[in-house]
Write a structure and sequence with these properties.
The chain is an all-beta fold. 0% of the residues lie in helices and 43% in strands. It is flat.
């Protein structure tokens, strides 16, 4: 469900956690210039909505959860010169023979991206004879406003709870001159090769 977007509408302030540089533990491996892909070709598609808007998928991979659902995950970056609403990624799922068997999609988690900002995305499939997936198209319409991402988040603790779930804790600082209501922190997790 998409909320009504009347005059003056703007999404809640959001922040991708990778923007935090202070108190972040060092990476054990440098992120490669060309990400290693688990499956599927990696393509850059310019969004057709406006001449100054573009988005590129910079990393993608997949995994199967305990219920048998395959999660197609990745990261999309605003490579245009103006802010865009959450990029929409159309995907095609192929079976082991390379035949297209399903169409699906994923939307960026972050509601709006300024130029140079990135967001994770996810799509799901339950195709039994899964082979790979590929990007069909990316759309990233101009937002008409600058996202409020002038917030600083720092992870100060990482631990596992009694059930074995990883917990992250930290602080969030508003570097704006006005109040920010209901900020959201969005994490993108990478493997040792820098792949989502």
């Amino acid at each position: 469900h998409t909320p009504e977007r009347g005059p003056g509408w703007a999404p809640a302030p959001q922040l991708s956690a990778h923007r935090c540089r202070r108190n972040r533990p060092p990476r054990t491996a440098a992120r490669p210039a060309t990400p290693t892909l688990v499956s599927g070709p990696l393509h850059a598609f310019a969004a057709p909505a406006h001449a100054d808007t573009a988005a590129t998928v910079t990393s993608m991979s997949n995994y199967v959860d305990s219920n048998g659902t395959r999660h197609l995950v990745g990261e999309v970056k605003n490579t245009g010169s103006e802010s865009v609403l959450a990029p929409h990624i159309d995907l095609e799922v192929l079976n082991s023979a390379g035949t297209s068997v399903e169409s699906t999609f994923g939307d960026a988690t972050v509601a709006a991206l300024a130029p140079g900002e990135s967001s994770p995305f996810e799509a799901q499939t339950r195709v039994p004879d899964y082979g790979s997936f590929r990007i069909v198209a990316i759309s990233a319409p101009a937002s008409g406003f600058t996202p409020n991402h002038n917030l600083a988040a720092c992870i100060t603790q990482v631990f596992r709870d009694a059930a074995g779930n990883r917990q992250l804790g930290g602080t969030l600082r508003n570097d704006n001159r006005t109040a920010a209501a209901d900020p959201q922190i969005i994490f993108t997790f990478y493997d040792g090769n820098g792949t989502v």
